[in-house]
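Figure 6 in text form: structure in, sequence out.
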């Protein structure tokens, strides 16, 4: 059985990729940002996942505005870095996990999420920048020869109105959790949510950053996703800029982790280009001890209260502390 062992959400600003590719990571402008990603690199290397399900948005690169799927999954064996105007980034080809990707499509579609299946597509900064900053090495973020794990790309439309709601994204995440659990092979899976945080790239409000709003979003991601699920599209646009809507993709990651998750790390740095660069790492709450016994008790309605009372929801028991 495959397992989701962690979730990570990060900004995907293209200039971060350019700073790595052009050897600028140690410049004073960039260094604080890259320093903040070193613990994420260490966390991911320690987990050593077999597959990352990488939730991202295509920026009118693979799909253009002729075809705009709301949710799509890359089922191919590999995905080349896209040419976004300056030639493809000098990063490894992304290797897919076709069998898991097809299983996700089947499970999600039978679970009533209508997924577009993509056999071939280039992947833009929305996918390659998150891989670079979490799989690069050290504060220079040196690009590896090959990405350390397979990647299932899950693209979400947040470019053309109407994007999916936060609630729909969260529910899709929960369905991904169920789908991964029902996969036959014993794989370790990490889910990435990408994009955000507050940013607006154009018009009178270009450069808008909302630190307070972003901080509340980070605060609530692990323990109060119920609030985040209900944030309407207009609040994202008003409070976090036109492109802040990318944060709905973080809710897919959050939903995939299950009801209880704990924060193990975060980093927030302003600015990276026009964006408030956010990073957060969550882990699913450890499986409760005595689960079989608890399940038997749960089947008897009168003992339910007793089981819940012993172990309150959201109780963290891990050793690692959040760094804030
Ligand atoms: C920037 C941020 C993005 O999320 C993006 O897709 C493109 C540009 C930026 O801040 O420059
Ligand atoms: Fe973007």
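Output sequence:
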């Amino acid at each position: 059985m495959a397992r989701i062992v962690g979730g990570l959400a990060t900004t995907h600003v293209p200039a971060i990729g350019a700073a790595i590719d052009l050897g600028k990571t140690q410049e004073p402008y960039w260094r604080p940002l890259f320093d903040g990603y070193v613990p994420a690199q260490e966390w991911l290397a320690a987990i050593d996942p077999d597959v990352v399900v990488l939730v991202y948005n295509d920026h009118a690169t693979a799909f253009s505005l002729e075809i705009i799927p709301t949710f799509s999954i890359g089922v191919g064996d590999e995905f080349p870095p896209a040419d976004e105007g300056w030639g493809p980034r000098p990063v490894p080809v992304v290797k897919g996990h076709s069998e898991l990707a097809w299983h996700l499509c089947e499970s999600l579609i039978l679970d009533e999420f209508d997924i577009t299946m993509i056999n071939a597509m280039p992947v833009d900064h929305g996918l390659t920048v998150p891989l670079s900053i979490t799989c690069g090495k050290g504060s220079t973020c040196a690009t590896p020869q090959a990405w350390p794990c397979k990647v299932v790309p899950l693209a979400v439309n947040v470019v053309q109105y109407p994007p999916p709601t936060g609630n729909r994204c969260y529910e899709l995440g929960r369905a991904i959790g169920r789908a991964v659990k029902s996969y036959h092979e014993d794989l370790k899976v990490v889910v990435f949510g990408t994009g955000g945080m507050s940013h607006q790239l154009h018009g009178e409000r270009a450069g808008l950053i909302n630190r307070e709003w972003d901080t509340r979003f980070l605060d609530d991601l692990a323990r109060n996703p119920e609030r985040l699920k209900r944030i309407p599209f207009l609040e994202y646009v008003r409070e976090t800029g036109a492109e802040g809507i990318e944060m709905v993709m973080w809710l897919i990651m959050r939903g995939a982790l299950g009801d209880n998750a704990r924060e193990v790390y975060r980093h927030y740095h302003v600015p990276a280009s026009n964006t408030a660069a956010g990073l957060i790492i969550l882990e699913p709450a450890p499986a409760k001890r005595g689960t079989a016994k608890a399940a038997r008790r749960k089947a008897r309605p009168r003992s339910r209260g007793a089981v819940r009372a012993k172990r309150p929801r959201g109780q963290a028991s891990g050793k690692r502390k959040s760094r804030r």
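Caption detail: The two ends are 34 Å apart (CA to CA).
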